[in-house]
Write a structure and sequence with these properties.
By secondary structure, this protein is α/β, with parallel strands linked by helices. Helices cover about 35% and strands about 25% of the residues. Strand 3, helix 3 and strand 4 form a beta-alpha-beta unit. The structure holds nickel (II) ion.
Length: about 400
Amino acid sequence: MKQKIKEYVQTKLPGIIELRRALHKIPETGFNEVKTSSFIARTLEQAGFEVTTGIAKTGVTALLKGNGPGKTLLLRSDIDGLPIAEETGLPFASTHPGFMHACGHDGHIAILLGTALILKELKNQFSGQIKFVFQPAEEGPGGAKLMIEEGVLDNPKVDYALGLHLWASIPENKIALKAGPLMAAMDRFDLDIIGKGGHGAMPHLCKDPVDAAAQVINTLQRVVSRQMNPLSPTVVTIGTIQGGTAFNIIPDKVHLSGTTRTLDKEVWKGWESRLEPMINGVCTAAGVKYKLDYQPGYPPLINDSAVTEIARQAAAETVGSENVIEAEATMGGEDMAFYLEQVPGCYAFIGIGTPGCAPHHNSHFAFNEEVLGTGVKYLCNLVMEISNARNC
Ligand code: NI
């Protein structure tokens, strides 16, 4: 089967690259992926799939039945681009000014479409069924949760969820896997610090929110360094500060926004109750008021051990066991985590890294398209391995 899949991918790779280039030209941001989702639906329909559109606004799904009853596998690709002006100079560069597929999601779509087209031809070779899921808004505000709320894990009920990300910090054509926590829970918070403005020369007549904000920023780092287990990584980052109009005026208000990260589900649930008392303490001491708006985001992404073992097998069949490496956990977030919160599965990184290559979310981001073939082979091998595994 491994050989057969290899041959199919070799034959279809030029077409898969064409699909990727067409998608690369039309990047659209979260929940605006109108052209992208109709391109996906059209490609699947032309191949004879029955397609459902409009899930989570711009999401697309298609179901493929194998040979007889068995497990239902969800294969997921994200489909959104980013608000970045492309500077790659590629002949198939973005035709949407100010927008770019700078994270590789165009590659993910092409990989999943290629996988769907090949598995359709091999449908007598596996049991159960495959649900292909093309999900909007991974980069924000998040489409996975909405797709689940709209029933993507039901009818038929999904047993396993599988996905991948092209990954620039891993060498080209290596596949990196890790059982357990792989990506961080990611929340956002907004904080208004409200004081009393006045002349910069007379701080004693004011309640200075700038000074209080500075203390809050420092104090929040104490949560990480003094409250958290140093063996369990956590991050608090303040990303924006807004306040003030002139060098000699103490403003009434300062606005901060930030993010928290953790790989631990329990820590994730407790962030607000750790941040709030620190903010409260500082603000009380400074005589200012505050308003904290804490918004839970994506859960930690946790790979199932048994499925990850099978994925290792599929990866070894794809790139050789010497090219299957242990993934390093990252504090980046990924809404694939929502599916993996509900059903066991595995999220993998496919290496696209070359010396000096541009990182993700960079205007020069690009990769060798041969890697798309690796992604398709890996997913096809994985479907065969899981569908035909007895202990799964
Ligand atoms: Ni991404």
